[in-house]
Every structure is written in structure tokens, then in C-alpha cells.
Here is the input.
Amino acid sequence: MAQRLIAGNWKMNGLRDALAEARAIINGLAPLPDTFDTLICPPFTLIAGLASVAKDSRLTIGGQDCHFDAHGAHTGDVSAEMLADCGASHVIVGHSERRADHGETNALVAAKATAAFRAGVTPIICVGETSEERASGQAVQSVANQIATSVPQDAAGRRVVIAYEPIWAIGSGRTPTLDEIAEMHDSIRLKLSERTGDATARETPLLYGGSMAPANAAEILSVPNVDGGLIGGASLKADSFLSICAAAA
Ligand code: PGA
Here is the structure.
């Protein structure tokens, strides 16, 4: 079975004083049982600082994106090797905001995940449907297509994380029903098996993301095949992030 993971995505939020929030998270995690992993993905500028604060704690640090090359003439980009060098253990790839804002395709997302493997960093591959796809009954098929094309061919036997994030649920305060989440996560596990084989698919944490909050975390985390959460807004404050961690414990 996959180890549970509660991951925070700070997006483009946080100046250096956010290190205090990370310290509060680390202190708050100490008394919780060790039955789940925790991760914060801050902006690039805070990765090294947070990694240093989190050293010798159970909080791990990740990036929010990486380039597929290891180095070179790519102004403004950061490689998976650079993230690893700063202390990152994970990197989010293919978040819907990057797919929308930067035109990232499934093929590019797969290339970024392969780059993460190369650098020894675990990719968190994001998938999710639009509200139109949900309304027209196409959500499961759309996400299945993303799994088939965003998860790289070389993922078998690798550590990888999948985050299911319905685009319409992100930052909206709306979430799918528990039945809809269950149906989607069952389908993702199945599609992943076809792509990576059963053993890898079984060990891959499937996270739910999109308006996860202290009020709904326990019920969402109780859904079969939900192995954790990718949390945006509610990860910015230690209190709310820790409440979600407590629900996972
Ligand atoms: P949200 O964001 O929790 O603020 O909805 C989740 C995400 O985009 O990863």
C-alpha cells in the first residue's frame, strides 16, 4: 500500500518570513504519529531556506516545477538537479495552473517527470478535468487520457506521486462528492497499472487536491484509494495545514 502524503503547494506565495510558518509546521508535526509523510512546495526562492529549517525533521521540501533539461540556455528556468541540490525531494509537474498559464502539454509534463527521475527527485504528476468535462460526463475519460500521456514510459519501478485536482475545485471552495472522488481514484489506480504495472501503481500515493481544508479533510482522506492531499490555500498557515495532517494521522 502507498504511504500517505500530505503536501502543501504554496504557489507564488511567501517571502522569507514564511520560514516562521515552516518552523510552526515542524513543531506541530512532532507529536503526530509517523503514519504519513509531509511535504511543503514553496516558491523556488524559499526552497533552500526551508530545506535548511526542515533538516532533521519529518517535513520534506519540494519544487513546484522544473525544466526537462539538466542545465543550459533556458532563461528563467530551474532544473530538477538544481532542486535536488537545494534539498528538494519532490517536484510538482503539470499543475493545471502551469498547463493553463504556460501551455504545458502532456508530453512536456512527462518529460519533466523523467527529468525528476534523472535527478533523483520524486515527481508529483497533476491531472484533472475542467468543469465542462465534469458536466458532460467526460471527467473520468479525460483524466485517464492524462494518465496515459503525462506519466512517462519509464515510470515503472520508480517513486512517483499522482495528484488528482479537478480544475474547477482549485481555490473555489467546491469539491466533487466523495463518490465522484472514489470513482476517479479507482480509475486512476487502474490506468496507472496499465502504464507502470501493478506493483508500481500499488505503491504510488494518489493525492486529492482542490479546496481541501480542515473541514473536509477527514472525509476525503477516508475515501478508498485516496492516499493524501495536495493542498494550496489551506497549506499557507501552519494551523490549517496541521489540522489536515491530524486528519491523516
Ligand atoms: P487549493 O489548491 O487547495 O487552494 O484549492 C490546490 C492546488 O492547486 O494544488
